[in-house]
Fold this protein.
Amino acid sequence: MRWLLLKDLRILRRSPLLVALLVLYPIVIAVLIGFALSRGPDKPEVAFYNGLAGAPAIVELGGERIDLTEEGSRLFEEIDPVRVDSREEAIEKVRDGDVLGALIVPDDLASNLQSTLEPGTVEVYYNAEDPAKKEFVENTIEAQVQQANAALTKRIAEEALDLLDLISEGGEYSFLGQEFDVLGLARAERILAEARESLPPGSPERERLDEVIEFGELSRENLAFSDDVLAVVGEPIRVRARALEGGSTSLNAFAVALAASVSLMFITLLLAAGMLAIEREENAFGRLVRGLVSRSALLAEKAGLAAVCSTAVCLLMLAGLGLFVEIDWGRFPLWLTAVIAGAVAFAALGLAIGALTREVRAASLLAFMLSLPLAFLALVPSGAVAPAVYDAIRAISAVFPFKPTLDALDAALNDAGGLAGPLLHLAALALAFGVLSRIALRRFA
Amino acid sequence: METATATTIAARDLVKRYGERVALRGVSLAAGRGELVAVIGPNGAGKTTLLSILAGIQRADEGVVEGPGRKHPARPGARGSSPIGWVPQQPALYGKLTVAENLMLFARLEGSADPAGTVDRMLDLTDLRDRSGDQVSTLSGGNRQRVNIAIGLLGEPEVLLLDEPSSALDPRQRERLWEFILRLAGEGTTVVYATHHIQEADRYANRLVVLADGERVFDGSPRELEQATGTTGLDFEQAFVEYLHQRGH
């Protein structure tokens, strides 16, 4: 088997264009898929006209000073602002395609908010030629404006709570630079109770004071509830998110696992299928298996060659990606295990393809045609299609090695879920495809 | 040339089916040391099937093959150097490897004790020493066939099986090939070959085995075949066609 392996390596070395394509193509595809999945423009360029520039952007609500510039700066965490000097210039930049959209903060935003009679309005422009871009800009800016709204609402509700507390308990209050002492219901209640004690029992004034004291008590009790009510008004819906399946992998980290799985699949499938089929195309198969090499040993040699080559390329690719994306090198033994398990399962599938098609071109074409749909099927999320279709997709994904390889690599790279399940799954698939290829080899000569 | 002596390879009652189609119907054949046996017949007669079963590439459904190092119910051989050399119709070579690399690979797989020496000997035997560093894909059909035959001879087999050995060659190359094969037979190698070139069967074979529709319809010398037609004035190819015609093929 050693001599066959050396022969195959020599043949590969003498086919530099083929090897270059075999290695570069899947890496390019993998990286492109990874980027497409993980990010749009990371921060979309948006023309930004700030009408408040140079003017005070402070809104005073119930004594609380809110700096709109500070609130607005959060928006810039999500977009890359291209500052312009006028509303017209911002719109022109969108028309010219220089930016994805424009955000215009009008001059009167602060005064409108201050008046509280009408809401502040910001304008958003985007080019609707490309629906994807339109959706992206809309979603990004609207989400950020919603966040700003929520932040302001919360601040206003907190201020209202303080005022209600002042009415209930009394205390110092500052407004327009002047200090006031507010009596408050609790202190009023105490004063009234003292006044009541000074009245003779049975006097009609005492009875009327009792009514006032009772009203004060009732008001305070109800105001105590208003804390909760206002807290709900400030944030009517809270989100408590819990992942039920899978791990907490970030999109970038998942893209790395995906890129590695795609390149592993392409290289291993094409290499295993092609190198087995070439034995028949060169008419050497009959000569080899008539006593020189057993059929099983021949399959093992091809699987080993494909798995070793693709594992090496995949590890190099991960090391390369590690320059751009944070990868936990402490988990290297786990990655290696996952990559090898995936490579062996893909190699077994590749051998089955090569043994069934019996021609290098047909084997390469089938391996290629199978690869992309398998990758896409494995990425269809639940809920994106009808339940029955999703069940069918899951079943199809389960009988090919891509999905378990992706799960294993995600688990190994990103600590997302258990590794043992996908590894066992891959071992079962490797065995099944190995048996299939051995059977198909009976009619290979 | 040595005369045929003891039987070195024999097949008895071989039957091979491909689904509904029967490729061989109880075919038997025997060849002795130094004998040159030609297997001839129309297309689809079962010539390649017979040789591939003798070579151990295919398994017969029924029948037995007895040969050097083997006596079994016509199954592919066990792992290791085979005393039966096999030269398929299409050269079984790696086009990206050089002549010497192809020879070295198969010498090693054959388990040769001295692979380099064996390769040297084969390069001399096939007159390909000056092309030993060339990739096989750059060789002419004739030279490829010579390498193909050389690989079949690497294990120094007692029996050499050739399937259409001269089909890709021009007349001059064919002549050189037959000189080479006759020399091997002269040294005692049993040679069984399938061919479409009836004149080659007539000129070089000691014995003919004629197959038609999977049946052996003749086993004897070329002269015996001519006599069996009962006609005179025919060349050998015409006699062969007449023989088949008389038997309904």
Q: What stands out?
A: Chain B has two domains: 7-83+158-246, 94-156. DSSP finds eight helices and ten strands in chain B. The radius of gyration of chain B is 18 Å.
